[in-house]
Amino acid sequence: MEREYKEILLLTGLDEINEEELQRFKFFVLDEFKISRSKLDKATNRTELADQLIQSAGPVSAVTKTICIFRKLSYMHAANRLQEQKNKVDSRYMTNTKKKGTQEVEERSKDENCSGASATSKDEASKKHSAPEVCPQAKPQKKQIVAGQEATREGLQKDPLALLVLKATMPFECETQKGKQTIFHATVATETNFFFVKVLSAEFKDKFTPHRTIKISNYLWYSKFLEVTSSSIVVEADADHQVCVPNSIKEKAGRTPMIKKLKTEPRGTIVNGMFKVQKIIEQRRDRVLYGIHDSTGEMEVLVFGNQDQVKCEEGDKIRLTFFEVSKRGEKIQLKSGPYSFFKVIKATKPKTEKESAC
User: Fold this and answer.
1) Distance from C-alpha of 31 to C-alpha of 269, rounded to nearest angstrom
2) CA–CA separation, 95 vs 196, rounded Å?
3) Does this chain's domain 2-86 share its CATH topology with 157-254?
4) Between β-strands 331-335 and 297-304, what pairing exists: parallel, antiparallel or unpaired?
5) pLDDT tens for residues 138-147?
């Protein structure tokens, strides 16, 4: 299966762009892949470049990162073709491994089951390697397995996943592979983790209602977020499949990350939060570079797009949705992408005291 990812990376990905586009692509490779400039310069052709990308990130992640760079550069035709081919390979992989994965989960469930039958004989329990006899201890082990499964997923997911909706943004218009499209973002959670969701179809807005448990299937699972498209299925979960999310996860999902922590996150990490503007470092019509700060440090935020209508001053706050951790020279920064949303919250100005009458 890895061979197929390697093939589409080269034939459907790198071979789809011309020489000038390839040089621009290499510029962003330094941000997305752990490849030194000297090593990258040694890649004299597309085959050698593909080898370096795969050695750095692995076949699947190399394809995902390449699609991400293509989208940043607005190589929508190449990004669209590569994504389509990746979805086909993902689908074949999921079909081949579905039965095996189901059997493994069933075996684990049997091992963790603390029924009376498994506890009647110590000898029988030791042969079957069953879970401890005390039932409450089995529950945390099950959660650990679920968390492990969540951490290893990637690509097209056909099976339904139950999630509690924590919040959702209002739909907004952005430039996608299909041209201008109305999308929105959401934050959802399971019993063990929370996720950011990029919803590329506004028709699902009514489903993503806060405090509601939904089931999604036929969606894309990336390492940093979930993606729901018009081909996905979103339904409200019935009473037997409600998700109970601990308050600690809800609080973590709604918390703005501290700048000190953001500087340690890997590049490409998705960031949502509200930050205070310390200064406006650079301002152009199509981009603005902000300086933000909190009690742990300072950081830069690069916002692309038409900024004529955005009136932001020092002291205002900016709400960032679906920004990503990036690198500018030696500095770690937050950068907007084609699916990001940016909003200015004006600082409240103190009322001026009325002059007292003489």
Assistant:
1) 12
2) 26
3) no
4) parallel
5) 444 444 444 4
Q: Which residue has the tokens 């999604």?
A: 216
SS3 308: coil
CATH annotation of 157-254: 2.40.50.140
Helix, strand and coil percent figures for the chain, each rounded to 5: 40, 30, 30
Query: Could you give phi then psi for residue 267, rounded to 5 degrees?
Result: -60, 140
Q: Where are the domains of the chain?
A: 2-86, 113-152, 157-254, 256-345
Can you name the residues that pair with 333 across neighbouring β-strands? 300, 326
Give 226's strand partners. Answer: 197, 221
Residue 59 to residue 46: CA distance in whole angstroms? 15
Distances (CA, A) of 107 to 114, 135, 147, 313: 13, 17, 17, 59
Amino acid 349: pLDDT: 66
Calpha distance 123→258 (Å, rounded) = 52
Which tokens belong to 250? 């809800």
Report the distance separating Cα 69 and Cα 62, nearest Å: 11
Q: What is the C-alpha to C-alpha distance for residues 185 and 190, in angstroms, rounded to an integer?
A: 17
Looking at 1.10.443.10, 2.60.40.2230, 1.10.533.10, 3.40.50.2000, the CATH number of the domain 2-86 comes to 1.10.533.10
- Residue-wise pLDDT tens digits, 214-255: 999 999 998 779 999 999 999 999 988 899 999 999 999 999
Q: Which CATH superfamily is domain 256-345 in?
A: Nucleic acid-binding proteins (2.40.50.140)
Q: 């000898």: which residue's tokens?
A: 123
Rounded CA separation 310/319 (Å): 13
Compute the C-alpha angle 214/86/84, nearest 5°. 85
Backbone angles phi, psi at 253, to 5 degrees: -65, -35
